[in-house]
Design brief:
- Keywords: ATP-binding, Kinase, Membrane, Nucleotide-binding, Phosphoprotein, Transferase, Transmembrane, Transmembrane helix, Two-component regulatory system.
- It catalyses: ATP + protein L-histidine = ADP + protein N-phospho-L-histidine.
- Pfam families: HATPase_c, PAS_8.
- This protein folds into four domains: 135 residues, no CATH class; 100 residues, PAS domain (Beta-Lactamase); 87 residues, no CATH class; 159 residues, Histidine kinase-like ATPase, C-terminal domain (Heat Shock Protein 90).
- It has 15 helices and twelve strands.
- By secondary structure, it is an alpha+beta fold.
- The two termini are 59 Å apart.
């Protein structure tokens, strides 16, 4: 701030009066003093050769520095001695005393002149600073309110007026409690400070209803500034409405992208899904044909017909279960967090992945050696991550003589599990490894390169981490999830 004032202020310097101007002013002052003394002698017969020199010396130094005062003093003394030779005051001691007084008056007058000019320059600086600060306050892109200790708004800048333009009235004189929907009981500043503290700790905003528009969501800062011994408070307001709206829109777009990713993952399993559904439907068709033949024979055993119908319905329900599982996997569009058994998520994801495993004639091994407890996740999104990693593993081993994909769960820390998917494929190329999780980075011939990017985003939303473990002999991807052990589940329940 000091550098700003140095750049803004004109230094309060006193410029010296030109010597010629000082001489002229001194001469005029001396002539005035001598002329007045002569007039007094002529009219009133008083011999006062030096009296008026006191006034003119002081006046000359106030006007044009000590030089003018001294020039005037010298001329008054010389003129007084020459024009009033017989005056009683024209003696050597008196003349010396007068000269000393004139010198003191000249210096005093010059000092007063410099003080007056310095004061004027400082007053100009203060006016410049005030104008500058008013301009800053008025044009600052952040809304600012100045509130007195009673909670009444004293003034507001242009940004604040624009922010609350829906009120159609000036903010000055308005209650801060009414403006920000604060409680009316108690101290307005106390409620304001409490709301600021809550916002800083939790990120909570103050919502201001706006007729016919989206409510304003504001964050606040508060600072106390004593002015003339009275407490005033500066309230800084930041409009979070555009940011919150953008966050909500981005969250919606991310959900759509994740849903598209799930649909894309199932699209990659198109033939495998068709084969998976073909089995129960074909079996149901065979059972239906058998029932028809049985019903054509009126003497056929009814119990066998009922058993065949039950088997047919079982195959149809099996197909329905597959359809429902696929529909739930694709249709989920909102984050639905809940405590879920780790085994359930892993086993359901492996059931979806086995479609691709069978199509590639590969083998999927699921390692769940113990009870791990529950994780707080959105099951569909974590299944999406697992399915994407399993399908990537299947595509990596489909041209290999050994086609193994392994899905395992292990403890990582006291509060985290690590889920790993490894395969016996060729591994990750060096040129792709550094940008593996970037959108559209892929080593597949027909891949889009969005699966791992979406998976990483999902895991990070669950406060976990997804990475490629290059230290393993097999191609291995791992991600972590927070969990609560089995013994803690019973306590929480």
């Amino acid at each position: 701030m000091n550098r700003l004032w140095e750049a803004l202020d004109d230094r309060p310097s006193v410029h010296p009066v030109p010597f010629g101007s000082a001489i002229r002013v001194g001469c005029l002052a001396a002539c005035a003093a001598l002329a007045t003394s002569l007039t007094i002698r002529t009219v009133f017969h008083y011999e006062w050769p030096f009296i008026f020199g006191f006034l003119t010396t002081l006046a000359a130094s106030l006007r044009a520095s000590w030089r003018a005062g001294i020039v005037g003093a010298v001329l008054v003394v010389v003129g007084g001695v020459l024009l009033f030779p017989d005056a009683p005051l024209v003696t050597e001691p008196i003349v010396m005393a007068v000269i000393g007084c004139y010198l003191i008056l000249a210096v005093t007058g010059d000092t007063l002149r410099q003080s007056r000019l310095t004061e004027h320059a400082l007053a100009q600086q203060i006016r410049q600073r005030e104008t500058y600060l008013q301009a800053i306050f008025a044009t600052l892109p952040a809304a600012m309110l100045i509130v007195n200790d009673s909670g009444i708004i004293v003034t507001a800048n242009q940004c604040a007026e624009q922010l609350f333009k829906h009120r159609h009235e000036p903010l000055a004189g308005c209650s801060i409690s009414a403006l920000l929907n604060l409680p009316n009981n108690g101290s307005a500043i106390g409620h304001l400070a409490k709301q600021v503290a809550i916002g800083q700790m939790t990120g909570q905003t103050v919502c201001i209803p706006v007729s016919g528009a989206h409510p304003l969501e504001l964050t606040m800062q508060l600072a106390e500034v004593p002015i003339s011994g009275k407490p005033f408070h500066i309230v800084y307001l930041r409009d979070e409405t555009p940011q919150r709206t953008a966050d909500a829109r981005r969250a919606g777009l991310e959900a759509q992208v994740q849903q598209l990713g799930r649909a894309t993952a199932l699209g990659q399993l198109g033939s495998a899904i068709a084969h998976e559904l073909n089995q129960p439907l074909a079996s149901a068709a065979l059972y239906a044909g058998a029932v028809r033949m049985m019903l054509a024979d009126p003497d056929h055993d009814k119990a066998e017909v009922d058993a065949t119908v039950v088997d047919m319905l079982g195959q149809l329900f099996r197909a329905k279960t597959i359809f429902q599982r696929l529909r739930n996997f694709v249709a989920a569009d909102e984050l639905d967090m809940e405590w879920v058994d780790v085994r359930r998520i892993v086993l359901e994801a492996s059931q979806l992945g086995r479609m691709a495993i069978r199509q590639a004639s590969a083998h999927l091994t699921v390692v769940l050696d113990e009870e791990f407890g529950e994780v707080f996740v959105d099951p569909v999104q974590i299944q999406q991550v697992l399915l994407n990693l399993i399908v990537n593993g299947v595509e990596a081993v489909q041209d290999r003589p050994v086609r193994e994909v392994t899905l395992s769960v292990a403890r990582w820390t006291d509060r985290q599990l690590v889920i790993s998917v490894s395969d016996t494929g060729y591994g990750i190329a060096d040129e792709v490894r550094n940008r593996l999780f970037e959108p559209f980075a892929t080593s597949k011939r027909h891949g889009l390169g969005v699966g791992l990017s979406i998976s990483k985003s999902i895991v990070e939303h669950h406060q976990g981490e997804l990475w490629y473990d290059h230290e393993q002999p097999e191609t291995t991807f791992r991600f972590t999830l927070g969990y609560r052990p089995t013994d803690a589940v019973g306590v929480a329940a």
